[in-house]
Design a protein that fits this description.
By secondary structure, the chain is an alpha/beta fold. Helix content is 30%, strand content 18%. The protein is built from 7 helices and 9 strands; from the N terminus they run E-H-E-E-E-H-E-H-E-H-E-H-E-E-H-H. The strands form 3 sheets. It has a 5-stranded parallel beta sheet, sandwiched between helices. It starts with a strand and ends in a 7-residue tail after the last helix. Bound molecules: S-adenosyl-L-homocysteine. The site of S-adenosyl-L-homocysteine has 18 residues, from strand 5.
């Protein structure tokens, strides 16, 4: 079973949207599991403090390394094989290939920060891998963690209705996906492209490949530049 352990100050945010639909059904079927740990349980003093003022001054508060270490150590033994992720805008941007690798593993231990972030020393101290979900700032790591878990869970065997539906999607091929159409044939004067109604599967496949390429060229030339010739598929 793929296991997610999430350390957060807001465990009530979980499973949240992951309790519904594909991810929620799979959670109920024990295809994956979700454990949340309240970081404040390791907080200091009567007020269970988890943060303190930044060394060197400046605005905001920083999450203490000692508190986070205690929370991580209580959540998982040192030999837990799962990667320890820190949701962080400074991290490596999350990609479909990282998601696929995570989905093929045992799960993840995910630390969600708040305030200005964490004391730098916890990153090396507990070998955290910093992961970003994009170049913008969220108010906390929880929504980033939900995003990462959702992307992983839908790849677990038996989660998506049609096994194949994952394979052709945007990024799996290195390209954006071709456009989709369904009924009605005429929507406010806009027709479904004739070729999709032709029944000629070879032609349709070629058309889709061309459309995917055109779209990627127009919107994400950076993806094309990265595209390596594939030996498989
Ligand atoms: N002061 C920090 C931002 C802190 S935002 C900076 O400028 O880099 C508070 C927390 O939200 C972060 O520590 C992180 O856990 C989470 N977070 C914010 N944006 C994120 C993003 N794009 N990806 C992943 N986590 C993010």
């Amino acid at each position: 079973m793929w296991r997610a352990t999430v350390l957060t100050l807001f465990p009530e945010m979980f499973p949240g949207p992951l309790g519904l639909s594909l991810a929620g059904d799979a959670l109920a079927r024990h295809v994956w599991s979700l454990e949340t740990r309240q970081i404040r349980e390791q907080g200091l003093g009567r007020h269970r403090a988890v943060d303190d003022t930044p060394a060197g001054g400046g605005p905001g508060m920083v999450m203490r390394a000692d508190v986070l270490a205690a929370a991580l150590d209580a959540a998982a033994p040192a030999d837990d094989p799962r990667p320890r992720l820190l949701m962080s805008p400074r991290g490596a941007p999350l990609t479909q290939s990282r998601v696929r690798a995570l989905a093929q593993g045992d799960g993840a231990i995910i630390l969600c920060a708040r305030f200005e972030g964490v004391d730098e020393r916890i990153i090396a101290g507990r070998q955290l891998e910093e992961v970003s979900i994009g170049d913008y700032i969220l108010s906390g790591g929880e929504i980033a963690a939900l995003t990462l878990i959702d992307a992983c869970v839908r790849l677990l065997p038996g989660v998506m209705g049609e096994e194949a539906s994952g394979d052709e999607e945007s990024f799996e091929t290195g390209l954006l996906e071709y456009p989709h159409y369904t009924r009605p044939r005429d929507f406010e004067g806009r027709e479904i492209p004739e070729i999709l109604l032709s029944g000629d599967h070879a032609k349709i496949a070629r058309w889709r490949a061309e459309e995917a390429l055109k779209l990627t060229q127009a919107r994400r030339p950076d993806l094309l530049a990265r595209l390596k010739p594939k030996t498989t598929r």
